[in-house]
Q: What sequence folds into this?
């Protein structure tokens, strides 16, 4: 799913957890898995590219 980076920061990340196992929010461009698709738009690379990007290629 392509998403604006500001909106992504309100989604939970499956890899980031607190010391008491609570999930933390997405870090956006500060994360090594964040992939930029267009200016101010990207996706989490954990699951591979989204279908919308694959259709363009």
A:
């Amino acid at each position: 799913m392509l998403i604006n980076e500001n909106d992504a920061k309100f989604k939970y990340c499956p890899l980031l957890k607190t010391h008491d196992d609570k999930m933390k929010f997405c870090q956006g461009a500060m994360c090594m898995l964040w992939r930029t698709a267009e200016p101010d738009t990207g996706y989490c690379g954990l699951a591979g590219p989204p279908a919308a990007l694959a259709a363009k290629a």
Strands lie at 3-4, 12-17, 23-25, 34-38, 41-44. The first strand starts at residue 3 and ends at 4. Residues 3-56 form one domain.
